[in-house]
């Protein structure tokens, strides 16, 4: 089998692994980009706390009840696992339902936004049009909706139609998740 290094996270004092064999190649590419830029902590978006989930497909029809519990726990404590392995983005004319859509595509822009989001840092994201700014931010909001309690949210936009469209997209993103996470 593949050997994984075990790391100690200084913030939480929890051990984690780096999933360098994820099938979401956008995360591998972004980690390589950060490495080439000289960043020391270039693999943080590949972290996974539960080594038993390495290589597990959360969309598999034969996922066990124990694996479902592990996926839920990992998602709750690790937004990076959620957006890397679980999150799906609706696409025009694409499949609707669990496993449909396309996988979350990480880039340095939405990486920075998610890092700020996960650390409660206000941020303003500027990227070219049609890169996925809104849909990636909606995945962060969906993660909070799914894995926190007693949360109230308000969607604001320059007009009411934009807020309604964002809420509709959020619901579409939720409908693409495995049934056990909806």
Biggest beta sheet summary: 3 strands, antiparallel
Order of helices and strands: EEHEHHEEHHH
Spatial gap, N to C terminus? 33 Å
What structural class results from the helix and strand content?
Answer: mainly alpha
Determine the fraction of residues in helical runs and give it as a percent range: 40-55%
Q: How confident is the prediction overall: mean pLDDT?
A: 87
Low confidence ranges: none
- Beta-strand portion reads 5-15%
Round the Cα radius of gyration to an integer and report it: 16 Å
Number of strands: 5
Shape category: globular
Q: How many DSSP helices?
A: 6
Strand order of the largest sheet: 1-2-3
Topology at a glance:
Blueprint: E1 6-8, E2 15-18, H1 25-36, E3 47-48, H2 65-77, H3 79-86, E4 88-89, E5 102-103, H4 108-118, H5 133-147, H6 160-175
Antiparallel strand pairs: 1-2, 2-3, 4-5
Helix pairs in contact: 2-3, 4-5, 5-6
Would you write up a description of this structure?
- There is one protein chain.
- With 182 residues, this protein is mainly α.
- Helices cover 41% and strands 7% of the residues.
- The chain has helices at residues 25-36, 65-77, 79-86, 108-118, 133-147, 160-175, and strands spanning 6-8, 15-18, 47-48, 88-89, 102-103.
- The strands form two sheets. The chain has a three-stranded antiparallel β-sheet, with no helix packed on it. The chain has a two-stranded antiparallel sheet with strand order 4-5.
- Helix 4 runs parallel beside helix 5 and helix 5 packs across helix 6.
- The longest helix is centred in the last third of the chain and has 16 residues, at 160-175.
- The two termini are 33 Å apart.
- The relative contact order is 0.13.
- The mean pLDDT is 87.
């Amino acid at each position: 089998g593949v050997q994984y290094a075990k790391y100690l996270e200084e913030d939480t004092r929890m051990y984690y692994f780096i999933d360098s064999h994820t099938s979401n190649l956008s995360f591998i590419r972004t980690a390589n980009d950060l490495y080439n830029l000289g960043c020391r902590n270039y693999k943080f978006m590949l972290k996974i706390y539960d080594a038993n989930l390495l290589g597990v497909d959360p969309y598999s029809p034969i996922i066990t009840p124990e694996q479902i519990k592990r996926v839920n726990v990992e998602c709750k404590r690790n937004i990076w696992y959620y957006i890397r392995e679980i999150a799906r983005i609706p696409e025009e004319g694409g499949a609707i339902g669990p496993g449909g859509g396309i996988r979350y595509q990480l880039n340095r822009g939405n990486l920075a936004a998610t890092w700020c989001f996960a650390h409660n840092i206000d941020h303003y994201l500027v990227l070219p049009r049609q890169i996925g700014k809104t849909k990636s931010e909606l995945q962060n909001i969906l993660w909070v909706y799914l894995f926190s309690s007693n949360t109230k949210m308000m969607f604001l936009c320059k007009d009411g139609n934009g807020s309604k469209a964002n809420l509709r997209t959020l619901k579409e993103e939720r409908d693409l998740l495995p049934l056990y996470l909806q």
